[in-house]
Design brief:
CATH topology of one domain: Rossmann fold
CATH architecture of one domain: 3-Layer(aba) Sandwich
Largest sheet: 6 strands, mixed
Strand content: 25-35%
Shape: globular
CATH superfamily of one domain: P-loop containing nucleotide triphosphate hydrolases
CATH class of one domain: Alpha Beta
Order of helices and strands: EEEHEEEHHHHEHEHEEH
Strand order of the largest sheet: 6-7-8-3-9-10
Radius of gyration: 19 Å
C-alpha cells in the first residue's frame, strides 16, 4: 500500500466574533495509506471535524497543507465523498431511498439504466434492497445512514470522509451498523478517514488510530497501527490492552484541558 492522503503541518485559526483569533489546530501531520480505515480520535472540541472539512475542501488551512496523491487539496472534488453525522439533513426528504442514491449520478449525467444498476448494487450492499422506494420519513436513523453510505459509494470516490456518522444512533443500532460498515469497507476496499470520539468504535473499525491532543492548538498525540485479532471484541486481551492505553492518553488530555 502507498500513501494517499498526507497532512503536512496543518494549522487552522478562526476569527473570534469579539476580535482576535483562536488557534484550533497546530502543525497536525499524519498520513493515510490507500485502502486503510484511518480513525481520528480526540476530546470534544479538539478540531477533528475541522481536519475533515479541510480534507473535504470545505475549508482552507491557515498554514501547512493536506495533499491527495501529492497534490494540495484546495476545493471539494469527486474523488472524495462525505458521510455526515446529521443524517436528518443529509438526505433529500422529497426523494425516496433509490432517488437519493441516484441524485449525484443524475447530476453527473449518467443515463437512467446506469443509475438504476448502480443504485441497486449499493442499496443491496447496505442491506436496503427491499426499502428502495421508501422516503426518509419512513426510515429509521440507521436506515437513513445506510442510504447516505450507499449514496457516497455510488459516486465511486477514492476516499470516504466520515464525520461521527453513528453518534446520534441508539446503542443497539450503532453496534449493528458498525459491524456492517466494516464489512462494507472490506468489500469495497475504499480509503476511509473516520472521525469519532468513541474509543470502542475506533478500535472496532480502524486499521489505524490517531489520538489528538485537547484544543486549543490541538495536534497529534500518538498514532497506533491496529493489528488486532479478528473478530474484534472487547473480550480479547489485545483489544483490552490497547483500549486501556488509548483511554489513558485521552484522560490525560481531558485533565490538561480542565487545568487550563
Amino acid at each position: 500500500m502507498w500513501r494517499l492522503l498526507r497532512a503536512d503541518r496543518v494549522s487552522k485559526d478562526f476569527q473570534k466574533a469579539e476580535g482576535g483569533i483562536v488557534e484550533v489546530l497546530r502543525e497536525v501531520s499524519f498520513q493515510v495509506e490507500r485502502g486503510s480505515l484511518f480513525t481520528l480520535l480526540g476530546p470534544t472540541g479538539c478540531g477533528k471535524s475541522t481536519i475533515l472539512n479541510i480534507v473535504a475542501g470545505f475549508e482552507q488551512s491557515t498554514s501547512g497543507q493536506i495533499l491527495y496523491d501529492d497534490t494540495p487539496i484546495t476545493t471539494p472534488g469527486k474523488d472524495r465523498a462525505v458521510i455526515f453525522q446529521d443524517v436528518s439533513n443529509a438526505l433529500f426528504p422529497w426523494l425516496n431511498a433509490r432517488e437519493n442514491v441516484e441524485f449525484g449520478l443524475k447530476i453527473a449525467g449518467l443515463d437512467r439504466a446506469d443509475r438504476s444498476q448502480r443504485s441497486e448494487h449499493y442499496l443491496r450492499l447496505v442491506g436496503l434492497s427491499e426499502d428502495h422506494g421508501k422516503f426518509p420519513f419512513e426510515l429509521s436513523g440507521g436506515m437513513k445512514q445506510r442510504v447516505q453510505i450507499a449514496r457516497a459509494l455510488a459516486n465511486d470516490p477514492d476516499v470516504l470522509l466520515a464525520d461521527e456518522p453513528f453518534a446520534a444512533l441508539d446503542a443497539i443500532t450503532k453496534k449493528h451498523i458498525q459491524v456492517e460498515f466494516r464489512r462494507i469497507w472490506q468489500e469495497t476496499a475504499k480509503t476511509i478517514l473516520y472521525i469519532t470520539h468513541d474509543i470502542m468504535e475506533a478500535l472496532l473499525l480502524g486499521t489505524h488510530l490517531a489520538v489528538m491532543t485537547a484544543g486549543p492548538r490541538a495536534g497529534i498525540k500518538k498514532i497506533f497501527k491496529l493489528d488486532l485479532k479478528e473478530p474484534r471484541s472487547h473480550a480479547n486481551p489485545d483489544f483490552v490492552e490497547i483500549y486501556s492505553r488509548v483511554e489513558a492518553l485521552i484522560d490525560e488530555e481531558v485533565r490538561r484541558m480542565r487545568e487550563q
